[in-house]
Amino acid sequence: MQKNIYLFSLTPYKGVNHINSLHVSFFTPKINFKNYDYLIITSKQVLEALKNYDESWKDLAVLAVAKPTAEAVKKAGGTILEYGSGYGDNLSAIIASYDKEKRWLYLRAKEVASDFALTCKQNGYKIDEVIVYETSCSKECLHVRVEDDATLIFTSPSSVECFLKHHDFKETQNIIVIGTTTARAIPHGVSYKIASQPTMQSCIQKAQE
């Protein structure tokens, strides 16, 4: 194990130190999936939330934010309509390629980094948003101790924000972020590198270079 690589993410990855920086709380608002044509899923945590519902959601094809999310949907028994390149903002173009009469259900966190759904609704697309979970900073992130020469990998803006609530970045640390949305959470003046692809595997590869 490369002990000086720390991954701040909900999902662990073999070979690095995993720090679960977020605590997830799930909600179960009433949902009639029969009212919709498609689902929008931008997080694997949504699939955990869906375990609290019957399997009628599987009758809807899913627009997933990226290939790893799409694979998780298929593993859970769902079907994929399309998947994006890893950024919520890129989903707007995909949605715009469908008829405006189609009804979309966006299952999401309480706080999201992209306002693609609002943009689409302003352009006349029918999207309902339902909050099925929220995240808060974990105690694990509070108590973590990382070396001054460590490599830190962040996979969401929230993971950066939780780390910075209790710690500071050192100039000698290497910072890796999964994409441009997460990069926006890095304080001004702090150097970082963006993974070649918005996937955890790409982050690990960048850290090992």
Write structural notes for this entry.
With 209 residues, the protein is of the alpha/beta class. It has two domains: 5-21 and 138-208, Rossmann fold (3-Layer(aba) Sandwich), CATH 3.40.50; 25-136, Rossmann fold (3-Layer(aba) Sandwich). It is 27% helix and 26% strand. The protein has a six-stranded mixed β-sheet. β4 (38-41), α1 (44-50) and β5 (61-64) form a beta-alpha-beta unit. The mean pLDDT is 92.
Number of domains: 2
Roughly what percent helix?
A: 25-40%
Strand content: 25-35%
| N-C termini distance | 15 Å
CATH fold annotation of the largest domain:
Rossmann fold
Tally the helices: what do you get? 8
Q: Describe the sheet with the most strands.
A: 6 strands, mixed
Task: Give the averaged pLDDT, no decimals.
Answer: 92
Which regions contain 5 or more consecutive residues with pLDDT less than 50?
A: none
Provide keyphrases for this structure:
Rossmann fold; 209 residues; alpha/beta
